[in-house]
């Protein structure tokens, strides 16, 4: 779609062939008479520069990002243990097996629950906190930095720390006992009724700082004149937030929800670290990604693991496209799925 | 656009001195900070206790304070070797992502050639390919390349996966450089590559630093890729090391807490040095 504007013709030769202006509506080097559309008049030096400066990037990107995804699509059709050439072509059998496996379906359901709960719990909480912190208070910078700390700490540290704190004799139960809430003590990590809520708690703790920072940035883009005018017209604080601030914060909220959804669909690290690969099933916290690792690499069934990866990818892609089509459309104009700039 | 968002932060009007405002706001803010920091503080304090103290009273204060756990970790070679590995991986990943990303952004932003739009779309589509999906075949690929249990086996894929976001952030930066600067440079006899080196590089520096910091922290905290590629203990990065340490000394809780809190320090220091840029860069990048 971007090619159309290259087709225009101009008269004078460009003083610096190959280089263009910011806007993209600059005239284009004309094809010399007699030859039609000679590569937009780019000289060999410019072509060499293009090749040298994008070549290495393209090689690394194609070999380590695009190729593995293509390989996953290919090996997903084989029963393959990871060594030698893949010869045992099984068609769609891996995919049938995936959707017949109740363990996978359970993992998929957990992913769905995590997506919904992330949006329902973290979103409103983060918006309220951002509204609160957006009021003019002292030490705002310090507060922002401190609530961002969990986001910067690695998943492994978070997982290790929280599993030590949450196990049966850990500090959380001890504190509950001390302050007279002993009846609340539970097996936070292993009780299937509770574990997914524990996971949600840890996820919220780790990632809410990111949402708050995003929303704060969005809030600061809202002109004060609007809220001042509403206040003069007699609107209450909450009316102003509901009628003015929230709608204007919409684009930021929608982008955050998108990132949160994709992150939740691909959740791996924290679950794998805290629950290990097998306990996650019984505790009800397994995800598609932990299922993929447990039944792919760990089980030595690489063909099957790749098929799971493809399913995971397609589910994320479909979710992303639907979200973009119906919700993000007016905000980004395809910035994520490959708009031009 | 990322560029305007990041530049825009600077231009914010100076805030007038504030009244203290409502105490309830501070109360909620304090609660929030407490909830965010308490686990971190617990991990650090736990490292100063003994296992007996932790067992008898998990929620207690260190009494007496013990530095043996920290001393043990710091004097053993394991921790430092893993810090060294993590540093190597993070530094080379960051350099690779920044150098390749900036060169390619320069071409995409300022050269006109057939396939430019397609190239940008290709990289932008890379955002949709998360590491999680590619990890199994990536492991096979790295094995076939003979890079298992080597740091380049982690660095190269990390560069690949870091490139899309880098290009998305940097292209607007490079595009925003006024043409007049380029024309002036050209009149002064500066070629296109000289322009890149002398003008684009310094002018895009805010974006480059933001991208660099984000890449560094992401690499430093990376878990999935090292988990697949690095199986030998001498090649472990810090996250793998923390996990291995936690399972190896699972009965020695205090020591695990000490190891864990020490491994947090580099990321926390790095974060506090650059927090302004990280917070600004993230919001700029995501507002896209």
UniProtKB/TrEMBL annotation, chain A:
<keyword id="KW-0813">Transport</keyword>
<protein>
    <submittedName>
        <fullName>Sugar ABC transporter permease</fullName>
    </submittedName>
</protein>
<keyword id="KW-1003">Cell membrane</keyword>
<comment type="similarity">
    <text>Belongs to the binding-protein-dependent transport system permease family.</text>
</comment>
<keyword id="KW-1133">Transmembrane helix</keyword>
<feature type="transmembrane region" description="Helical">
    <location>
        <begin position="253"/>
        <end position="275"/>
    </location>
</feature>
<dbReference type="InterPro" id="IPR051393">
    <property type="entry name" value="ABC_transporter_permease"/>
</dbReference>
<keyword id="KW-0812">Transmembrane</keyword>
<feature type="transmembrane region" description="Helical">
    <location>
        <begin position="57"/>
        <end position="77"/>
    </location>
</feature>
<dbReference type="Pfam" id="PF00528">
    <property type="entry name" value="BPD_transp_1"/>
</dbReference>
<keyword id="KW-0472">Membrane</keyword>
<feature type="transmembrane region" description="Helical">
    <location>
        <begin position="194"/>
        <end position="217"/>
    </location>
</feature>
<dbReference type="InterPro" id="IPR035906">
    <property type="entry name" value="MetI-like_sf"/>
</dbReference>
<feature type="domain" description="ABC transmembrane type-1">
    <location>
        <begin position="108"/>
        <end position="323"/>
    </location>
</feature>
<dbReference type="InterPro" id="IPR000515">
    <property type="entry name" value="MetI-like"/>
</dbReference>
<feature type="transmembrane region" description="Helical">
    <location>
        <begin position="112"/>
        <end position="133"/>
    </location>
</feature>
<feature type="transmembrane region" description="Helical">
    <location>
        <begin position="302"/>
        <end position="323"/>
    </location>
</feature>
<feature type="region of interest" description="Disordered">
    <location>
        <begin position="1"/>
        <end position="26"/>
    </location>
</feature>
<feature type="transmembrane region" description="Helical">
    <location>
        <begin position="145"/>
        <end position="165"/>
    </location>
</feature>
TrEMBL record, chain B:
<feature type="transmembrane region" description="Helical">
    <location>
        <begin position="256"/>
        <end position="274"/>
    </location>
</feature>
<feature type="transmembrane region" description="Helical">
    <location>
        <begin position="195"/>
        <end position="217"/>
    </location>
</feature>
<protein>
    <submittedName>
        <fullName>Sugar ABC transporter permease</fullName>
    </submittedName>
</protein>
<keyword id="KW-0813">Transport</keyword>
<dbReference type="InterPro" id="IPR035906">
    <property type="entry name" value="MetI-like_sf"/>
</dbReference>
<keyword id="KW-0472">Membrane</keyword>
<feature type="transmembrane region" description="Helical">
    <location>
        <begin position="120"/>
        <end position="142"/>
    </location>
</feature>
<feature type="domain" description="ABC transmembrane type-1">
    <location>
        <begin position="83"/>
        <end position="274"/>
    </location>
</feature>
<comment type="similarity">
    <text>Belongs to the binding-protein-dependent transport system permease family.</text>
</comment>
<keyword id="KW-0812">Transmembrane</keyword>
<keyword id="KW-1133">Transmembrane helix</keyword>
<feature type="transmembrane region" description="Helical">
    <location>
        <begin position="18"/>
        <end position="45"/>
    </location>
</feature>
<keyword id="KW-1003">Cell membrane</keyword>
<dbReference type="Pfam" id="PF00528">
    <property type="entry name" value="BPD_transp_1"/>
</dbReference>
<dbReference type="InterPro" id="IPR000515">
    <property type="entry name" value="MetI-like"/>
</dbReference>
<feature type="transmembrane region" description="Helical">
    <location>
        <begin position="88"/>
        <end position="108"/>
    </location>
</feature>
<feature type="transmembrane region" description="Helical">
    <location>
        <begin position="154"/>
        <end position="174"/>
    </location>
</feature>
């Amino acid at each position: 779609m971007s090619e159309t504007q290259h087709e225009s013709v101009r008269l004078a030769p460009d003083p610096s062939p190959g280089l263009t202006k910011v806007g993209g509506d600059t005239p284009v080097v004309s094809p010399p008479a007699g030859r039609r559309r000679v590569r937009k008049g780019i000289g060999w030096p410019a072509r060499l520069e293009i090749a040298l400066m994008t070549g290495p990037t393209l090689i690394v990107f194609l070999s380590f990002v695009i190729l593995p995804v293509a390989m996953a699509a290919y090996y997903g059709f084989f029963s393959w243990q990871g060594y030698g050439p893949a010869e045992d072509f099984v068609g769609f059998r891996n995919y049938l097996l995936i959707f017949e496996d109740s363990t996978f379906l359970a993992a998929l359901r957990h992913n769905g629950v995590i997506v919904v709960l992330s949006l329902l719990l973290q979103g409103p909480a983060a918006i309220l906190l951002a509204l609160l912190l957006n009021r003019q208070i002292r030490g705002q910078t310090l507060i922002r930095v401190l609530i961002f700390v969990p986001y910067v700490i690695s998943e492994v540290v978070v997982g290790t720390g929280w599993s030590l704190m949450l196990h049966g004799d850990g500090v959380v139960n001890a504190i509950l006992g001390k302050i007279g809430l002993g009846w609340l003590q539970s097996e936070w990590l292993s009780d299937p009724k509770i574990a997914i809520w524990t996971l949600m708690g840890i996820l919220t703790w780790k990632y809410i700082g990111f949402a708050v920072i995003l929303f704060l940035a969005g809030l600061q883009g809202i002109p004060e004149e609007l809220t001042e005018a509403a206040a003069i017209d007699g609107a209450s604080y909450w009316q102003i937030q509901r009628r003015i601030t929230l709608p204007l914060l919409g684009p930021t909220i929608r982008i955050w929800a998108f990132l949160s959804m994709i992150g939740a669909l691909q959740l791996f690290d924290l679950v794998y670290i805290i629950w290990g690969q097998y306990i996650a099933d019984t505790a009800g916290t397994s995800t598609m990604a932990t299922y993929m690792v447990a039944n792919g690499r760990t089980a030595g069934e690489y063909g099957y693991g790749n098929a799971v990866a493809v399913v995971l990818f397609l589910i994320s892609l479909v979710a992303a496209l639907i979200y973009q089509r119906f919700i993000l459309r007016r905000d980004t104009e395809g910035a994520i799925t490959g708009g031009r700039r | 656009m990322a560029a305007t968002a990041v530049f825009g932060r600077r231009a914010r009007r100076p805030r007038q001195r504030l009244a203290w405002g409502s105490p309830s706001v501070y109360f909620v803010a304090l609660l929030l900070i407490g909830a965010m920091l308490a686990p971190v503080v617990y991990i650090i304090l736990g490292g100063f206790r003994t296992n007996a103290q932790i067992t008898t009273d998990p929620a207690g204060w260190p009494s007496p304070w013990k530095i043996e756990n920290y001393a043990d970790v710091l004097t053993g070679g394991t921790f430092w070797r893993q810090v060294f590995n993590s540093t190597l991986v993070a530094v080379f990943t960051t350099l690779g992502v920044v150098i390749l990303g900036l060169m390619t952004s320069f071409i995409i932003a300022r050269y006109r050639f057939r396939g430019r739009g397609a190239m940008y779309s290709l990289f932008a589509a890379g955002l949709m390919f998360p590491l999680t999906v590619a990890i199994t075949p990536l492991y096979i690929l790295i094995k076939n390349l003979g890079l298992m249990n080597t740091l380049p086996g982690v660095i190269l894929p990390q560069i690949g996966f870091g490139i899309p976001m880098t290009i998305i952030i940097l292209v607007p930066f490079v595009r925003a450089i006024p043409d007049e600067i380029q024309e002036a440079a050209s009149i002064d006899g500066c070629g296109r590559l000289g322009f890149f080196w002398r003008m684009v590089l310094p002018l895009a520096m805010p974006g480059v630093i933001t991208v660099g910091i984000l890449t560094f922290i992401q690499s430093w905290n990376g878990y999935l890729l090292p988990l697949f590629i690095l199986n030998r203990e001498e090649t472990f990065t810090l996250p793998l090391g923390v996990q291995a340490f936690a399972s190896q000394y699972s009965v020695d809780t205090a020591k695990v807490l000490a190891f864990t809190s020490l491994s947090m320090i580099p990321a926390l220091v790095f974060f506090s040095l650059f927090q302004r840029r990280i917070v600004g860069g993230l919001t700029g990048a995501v507002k896209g």
